Amino acid sequence: MRRYRHVLVVLLMLVAASVAGEQALRLAAAARHQAGKQLAAAPDNAASAAAFTALLPVLRHPRCMNCHSRGDFPRQGDDEHQHTMNVRRGLNGEGVAGLQCSTCHQDQNLVGEHMPPGAPGWHLPSPQTPMIWENLSDRQLCELLKDPARNGHRTVKEIVGHMSSPLVRWGWHPGEGRTPIPTPQGDFLAKVKEWAARGAACPGETGPTARTDASPVKE
Fold first, then answer.
1. Segments of the chain assigned E as strands
2. Structural contact between residues 124 and 74, judged by C-beta atoms closer than 8 angstroms
3. Smaller CB count within 10 Å for the chain: N or C?
4. Residues 11, 88: Cα–Cα separation, whole Å
């Protein structure tokens, strides 16, 4: 009987040791994973600025520039000509009385070549923060995007969210007769997130990285 109890105790000790070992391995793996995540998101001005530079072909593509060019009106086409029908920005970026953006632009593209394009929330930036980046340098454009006083009172995190919104994603599916953004959307979004995670640094920046914790104030 004593021998049986001794064997049972030994077996229980071995099981306990095995469970403890497995738990220790899981904890170690979790710690390594967390450390890897922290390392991947460590501030790095050079990597962040390089990621932003990779975004520029998209930000300066006509699908973006037609809403972010100079003037109190949107633009059209690959040649970025002024919108026809005397369309204006209006008090909140949604057009003027009698000619709202939603009059023609629905939640999706209308079928047919050069028919009105559409996406949820179709509008221009408001006149208070028009987000015009025509003729800005790379660094000036970057600074505009992360400045709450000029970007619609958004944090960097909210700018990342805007870059993945339906209105921005429309640029890859602009409808018949329009040139879509050639940069793969997945690559663009990955670079946006890398830019923010690495510190939201700008090309040519040598000082501390930008804060990304500004209190969000939505329009």
1. 75-76, 81-82, 95-96, 99-100
2. yes
3. N
4. 81
At 48, phi and psi to the nearest 5? Answer: -65, -45
Local structure of 212: helix, strand or coil: coil
- Please give the pLDDT value at position 4: 54
C-alpha atoms less than 13 angstroms from C-alpha of 61 in its C-beta half-sphere: 20
Closest C-alpha to 198, from 78, 46, 53 = 46
- Please state, in angstroms and as integers, the Cα–Cα distance from residue 92 to each residue in 9, 61, 107, 148, 165, following that order: 76, 24, 18, 17, 19
pLDDT attached to residue 26 = 62
104 by Cβ neighbours in 10 Å (0-12 / 13-18 / 19+) ranks as middle
Give the end-to-end CA distance of the chain in Å, rounded to a whole number.
79
Provide the token pair at 56: 């520029």
CA 9, CA 15: separation in Å to the nearest integer?
10
- Among residues 103, 109, 106, 80, the alpha carbon closest in space to that of 90 is found at 103
| Cα gap 151→74, rounded to integer Å | 18
Euclidean distance between CA atoms 31 and 5, whole angstroms = 39
Nearest residue to 196 (alpha-carbon basis) of 165, 161, 166, 167: 161
Q: Residues 154-203: pLDDT tens digits?
A: 999 999 999 999 999 999 999 999 999 999 999 999 999 999 999 999 99
